[in-house]
Input
Amino acid sequence: MAVHDGQGGSALIGEAREAAESAERSAETGDGRPLRVTIVAPPWKGGAGAERVVSELTSFLSSRHEVTTVCPAAGSRTRDPGFSYMGPLLHVRLDHGRWGFIPKPVSVLINAARLGGAIRATRPDVVLSSYSVTLHSLTAMARTFGWIDSPLVIRFGSPPSFQMADRSRTSMVIFRRLVGHADALIANSSGVAADINQYLHVTPSMTRVIPNPCDVTAVQRLAEATPEGAPLVNSRTIVSLGRLAQEKNHALMIRSFARIAASADARLVIAGDGPLRSDLEGLGRELGVADRVVFVGWLSNPFPLLREAGAFCLSSEYEGFGYALVEAMACGCPVIATDAPYGPTDILEGGAYGLLVPNGDEQALAAGMLRILSDSALKANLRRRGQERAAQYDVSRIGETYARVLQEVAARHKARAGR
Output
């Protein structure tokens, strides 16, 4: 299998072509039936990237395989993200410390047994864990204790060192041991793969780099809709999509925008909700650009904004991937991003498909914003190249790669078992 090396589009295209050629073979197990795939995933939480990946994968894989999604029971504070998981959906009620008289290790074992039982009931040929270190741990523990006997693939959507930053050293050691029992690991960018290999001390050959899939056709269709209650967006508008949280660093974006707002006659439209919204609104007032920075909240369909905007900006401190970059490029919107670890440099191929500025550099980000808004030739070039690049992340390509990896793992496990 070709592994994306983070050095450009050629490896990604080659991997997709290789996957497409083996699609027919990947659709069945050795006994001629479709592969049974069970995906461990989060419940709806409002459209986060982890849910998007599972939604795209279940939609693609269910057309040729038997796909079941197992996830913790949804809480009361959930929101329909505008997409769904295809195929059967099985909720599992996990203990989240409600009963204080149960020691935590016992509670963890109970959760692993419950999750394992639900997974085993689906009789999978292969299991894909696609969310947090908590679910990865429980799934791997169920495999270790024999509560599931199917091969396990673990997908990391962000660096494990970031996810484990607030965990104890004991938790870290246990997690490393559990992950070491997986049959394959998937990283959504070359930087996440490097973090996996270094932090989890796994053999590099265990890790495959497969970018997040995006239904480019669906995004482009949604972009043609009428914006839902959004302000007027035009070629002088910079748009941002994302949760208003520390890692997205909207404060850097607003400070950078304030440097060029007046001279560029520009507007910044920020779509998304989060804990920092009031702080960010206050920053806009403090910098004197409150009338030019518009917060529109969460939108079920933000893509019409991207279709009409002059630029899209991603100012994150870190990103496992950077879904919004692909979506913006699919809509024909020129993009500028900070070189945050780890996804943007892969997606933009070091700056070939969009402007990439040093991470945390306020002045460079401001200069990049101004350059895109004022250079019509650059803007036209980035629109065209961005759409070409987005097509390489389409679910029709990436989904084939996932299908092939899952098939390989299932076949290897079957051969070892002598079945």
Remarks:
- The domain at 9-213+395-417 is CATH 3.40.50.2000 (Rossmann fold).
- The chain has two domains: 9-213+395-417, 216-391.
- Residues 395-417 form the longest helix (23 residues).
- Confidence is low (pLDDT under 50) at residues 1-26, 76-82.
